[in-house]
Write a structure and sequence with these properties.
Length: about 450
């Protein structure tokens, strides 16, 4: 895949760019063209997600088992070189195909895996990862006597608390990047050139050392220690990877690695990495390797190639065979994408169901409490309405039978006694809007006045 910037993806981009700069025509096949592949297309590379869509090449330089077999099947008779990048992944096993003329590993750990798979030790060479020095910016300042700024770049996060605690105790400011911390970067080289100290493994550790930073080789799998010149000589054949992580990645080990800081040793290690692991050195080796393979007088065997392709399809296309290789690949991909093996999926689903039940119970309890509160509010409102009605009745009774009513009746009597009927009647009619003359109404009195 050419989606992100994992080890194999970066190697593919480096080789394509470097070989094209040297005048070679490079054709790139990847099962998935992601952002990295689209970026390579934009720079003029020919990238396809079907091997048959590309012209017939002179040689196939392959990574990952499935794409390698697909390319060999699409272009029968073309010799191939295979490079393994992982010591455990099923998709980094050597392709069982007679067209593969050379098998290589990026470090000693991957080499041991290929030998364990059945290859002769002499048949597996080393082709270590390299650093494109043209991407490394110059350091803005020399390394200090003690580190002040650190960066961790990692795919995992289990060891981050230990690094954070050790850096805090040493007074070092820390920034975390990578899929583990959830903070991605497209330009790790710039971060390394600004940092005094970098916590990383494998390619990231190589790039950090090439950028002139001091390096503590560690990740969630373990800790190797501070990268000195002597350590670099011993650890580079292991690609600064899992094969040298002999200590646990706990606070004590990381604090000890920080305490081993030496700016001169970091600079000496950086010089060694730049001298031995530059991309130009790698490209020289690859050109020589390709020329050697193409010069060999080996006649293709179409029947053997077809049989190898058929056997691979039988094992890698999904079937009911529980021991087929494709099942190991499915488990590996499940662990990488979902954070756990496929075998653990029923337990994970049961945990999700339990969490859902607990959430539903909590929501039910909350709803019941809200209903109870609403009933209390309804009772309080009814009591308030009853109290209001009672007060209104008392006020009405006071107006009808109390002193105010007696005062009103007394005032009305005084009015009738003091004002003649002839005056009161017109005033009453004016008040009530009546216009009849006295004696013409049905009552003959013109109303109440």
């Amino acid at each position: 895949m050419l989606s992100g910037r994992s080890g194999t993806e970066v190697v593919t981009e480096q080789l394509a760019d470097g070989l094209r700069r040297r005048g070679h025509t490079v054709l790139v096949f990847t099962p998935q063209i992601g952002p990295l592949g689209e970026g390579m297309r934009a720079r003029g590379h020919r990238v396809a997600d079907r091997p048959g869509a590309l012209p017939r090449p002179d040689i196939i330089h392959a990574h990952h088992t499935g794409p390698a077999m697909a390319a060999l099947a699409a272009h029968p008779g073309v010799p191939g070189v295979f490079v393994s990048h992982d010591a455990a992944a099923p998709f980094d096993a050597a392709p069982p195909h007679p067209g593969i003329r050379r098998v290589l590993a990026v470090d000693e750990r991957c080499r041991a895996r290929l030998v364990d798979d059945g290859l002769a030790p002499a048949a597996v060479g080393l082709l270590p990862n390299a650093v494109d020095l043209s991407r490394i910016p110059p350091r803005p300042r020399p390394l200090p006597p003690r580190p002040a700024r650190a960066v961790v770049l990692t795919k995992h996060d289990a060891h981050l608390p230990a690094i954070e605690a050790a850096c805090a105790a040493a007074g070092i400011a820390l920034d975390a990047y990578g899929s583990g911390p959830g903070r991605m970067t497209e330009t790790p080289e710039a971060l390394f050139a600004e940092a005094d100290l970098v916590f990383a493994t494998a390619r990231s550790a190589l790039e950090a050392a090439a950028a002139g930073a001091g390096v503590v080789v560690c990740d969630a799998r373990g800790c190797a220690g501070f990268l000195t010149r002597a350590a670099a000589e011993a650890w580079l054949p292991w690609n600064l990877g899992a094969g040298i992580l002999a200590q646990p990645a706990d606070q004590a080990a990381i604090a000890a690695a920080i305490a081993a800081w030496s700016a001169p040793e970091a600079e000496a290690a950086s010089a060694l990495v730049r001298a031995e692991r530059s991309l130009d050195t790698l490209l020289d080796r690859i050109e020589a390797l390709h020329e050697e393979v193409l010069a060999e007088p080996v006649m293709p065997d179409p029947a053997a190639e077809a049989a190898a392709t058929g056997a691979f399809i039988a094992g890698w296309v999904p079937s009911f065979d529980r021991n087929a290789p494709w099942r190991r690949l499915a488990r590996a991909m499940g662990e990488g994408s979902a954070g756990g093996s496929l075998d653990a999926l029923p337990g994970q689903l049961a945990g999700i169901a339990e969490a859902q039940a607990a959430l539903a119970a909590a929501l039910a309890r909350g709803l019941a409490a809200q209903v109870a509160d609403a009933e209390c509010l309804r009772a309080d409102l009814a009591a308030l309405q009853a109290a209001t009605a009672l007060q209104a009745a008392r006020t009405d009774a006071l107006l009808r039978r109390g002193p105010i009513r007696r005062l009103r009746d007394a005032a009305a009597g005084l009015w009738r006694a003091a004002v003649p009927q002839a005056i009161r009647a017109p005033l009453w009619r004016w008040r009530t809007g009546r216009t009849e003359q006295p004696g013409r109404s049905g009552s003959g009195s013109g109303g109440r006045p």
